[in-house]
Amino acid sequence: MNVHDKYKPLTFWERTYLPRIWDGLVITMHHFFRNLWHFILARFGVQREWKGAVTFQYPEIRRLFHPRLRTMHRLTKRDDGTPRCVACMMCETVCPAKCIYIVAGQRPEKEIEKVPVKFDIDLGMCVFCGYCVEACPEDAIRMDTGVIEMASYSRQSLILTKERLLSHVPHPEYYTMRKDLELAAKPVQLRTESEAGVEAH
Ligand code: SF4
Ligand code: SF4
């Protein structure tokens, strides 16, 4: 379409909006009857692999996540279990929501100068932009826990402390490849509160 065609005057027929309404109805009806037909066939065992409209029985069953989805943060560890973070403050500086609070301390080893004594992320303010992950020069912070359930009864419980961030583990099994998204229906175990990362108060 020529860019100027967008601004040409609408015809009388177009100004009634009836063609566009009709188009919308056709699409909706197409999906409705297609789903209904697939559901009936699957129900009677004719085409079991055909699925109609899929309702995921969340939270027992849910879709896998897109691989690029940013979920709850975690701090990664070195082989000796200490945080990889060197308290460089890059993430705190770049965070647009100003929701990271770090206090740096001295580390006994000479080759690693600093360590975070305090490392808090206020999830109540976080906008999940992922800048902290991008900015980190040590791969010390990631957003691959697969935890999206962050509802809480208090603001205080939305603050992820260093200890909580270090206790989070990655859940690659909750993610899938882009091409598999349409097939992504998989039963998942309900996680414990500590795994979910936010305590209910
Ligand atoms: S995801 Fe964005 S808003 Fe949240 S802590 Fe990281 S940088 Fe800040
Ligand atoms: S998490 Fe990364 S960017 Fe943030 S202070 Fe630690 S080392 Fe620096």
Short description:
Helices cover 25% and strands 14% of the residues.
Plain-language structure description:
The protein is of the alpha+beta class and 201 residues long. It has two domains: 3-43; 61-196, 2-Layer Sandwich (Alpha-Beta Plaits). It has helices spanning 12-15, 18-43, 90-94, 131-135, 162-167, 193-196; strands at 61-63, 74-75, 100-106, 114-122, 141-142, 159-160, 185-187. The strands form three sheets. It has a three-stranded antiparallel sheet with strand order 3-4-6. Strands 1-7 form a two-stranded antiparallel ribbon. Strands 2-5 form a two-stranded antiparallel sheet. Strand 3 (100-106) and strand 4 (114-122) form a beta hairpin. Residues 189-201 have low confidence and may be disordered. Bound molecules: iron/sulfur cluster (2 copies). One iron/sulfur cluster is lined by residues 85-91, 102, 135-136, 138, 140-141.
